[in-house]
Specification:
Layout (H helix, E strand, L loop, with lengths): L2 H14 L15 H33 L4 H30 L3 H30 L1 H30 L2 H26 L5 H27 L6 H20 L1
Helix pairs in contact: 1-4, 1-5, 1-6, 2-3, 2-5, 2-7, 2-8, 3-4, 3-7, 4-5, 4-6, 4-7, 5-6, 5-8
Length: about 250
């Protein structure tokens, strides 16, 4: 099979694993008051861990390939802050339109954040797979594992805001398929021109967006519900899962 086709398939597999995150909306045995805070705390643990353990270090490493260590630190910090500011502005704009439905607003913000995160992931997975198939497979497996809780962060708030499984599936699909969009962009436009500096910029901004969503959206929203110790452990579980994935994959 053509290496380009295989690279697209690997990237699509990694991205669409996000759809597994839709499964909680089909669980009818648990009440909304339990599923929503547990899912949001789990997703926030995942997003914060991805940001601090993966995106920010990777962004710094990519900058360091172009400039010295101090400018690399500064560039990473600047673009993380820009990501936080961008996410805050998007959140404010969406809140003006959807202030009556905070869960729906949260789901839309999560979709936007994941698109910014998944497009560079798709670019990286596609280019890695074309260069080294085994490297691409390993990378896609790690991405697939952390995409599942990312899907939860979209599907759960969208479903409980709209009571529509169809909308939850569609929005989750959009966030996951953006990884394939990244592969298409890489194939059509970026492969000859992509630089480590640009990838570092995108990853740092994505980290800032995820940090903002976790601290200012997911966690505060979960605290609108009555929390038990078991629910709070979902945050720790999210962190643990991503740390485990980071060291295993």
């Amino acid at each position: 099979m053509n290496s380009i086709v295989i690279s697209f398939l690997i990237t699509t597999f990694a991205g669409l694993s996000t759809m597994i995150g839709v499964l909680p909306v089909f669980i009818s045995n648990y009440k909304e008051e339990k599923i929503i805070p547990a899912a949001l705390l789990f997703a926030s643990g995942v997003m914060l861990t991805i940001s601090f353990l993966s995106l920010i270090p990777e962004g710094f490493t990519l900058f360091f390939q172009n400039v010295l260590i101090i400018p690399s630190i500064l560039f990473t910090a600047i673009f993380v802050v820009l990501g936080i500011g961008f996410s805050a502005e998007i959140s404010r704009k969406i809140e003006e339109k959807l202030s009556f439905n905070y869960l729906y607003r949260l789901g839309i913000i999560a979709v936007i954040a994941l698109i910014f995160h998944n497009i560079p992931e798709g670019i990286t997975t596609f280019l890695s797979s074309r260069h080294d198939l085994s490297l691409g497979l390993t990378l896609s497996l790690g991405i697939a594992l952390h995409n599942i809780p990312e899907g939860i962060s979209v599907a759960v708030p969208i479903y409980y805001a709209t009571k529509s499984r169809k909308k939850a599936i569609i929005f989750t699909f959009i966030s996951g398929f953006s990884e394939t969009i990244g592969a298409i962009i890489a194939y059509l436009f970026l492969a000859p021109f992509i630089t480590s500096f640009i990838l570092g910029l995108i990853l740092s901004i994505a980290a800032g967006i995820m940090i903002h969503i976790s601290i200012y959206e997911l966690i505060p929203t979960s605290f609108k519900y009555q929390l038990s110790m078991i629910m709070l452990l979902f945050f720790v579980f999210g962190v643990f899962i991503m740390v485990l994935c980071h060291f295993i994959i």
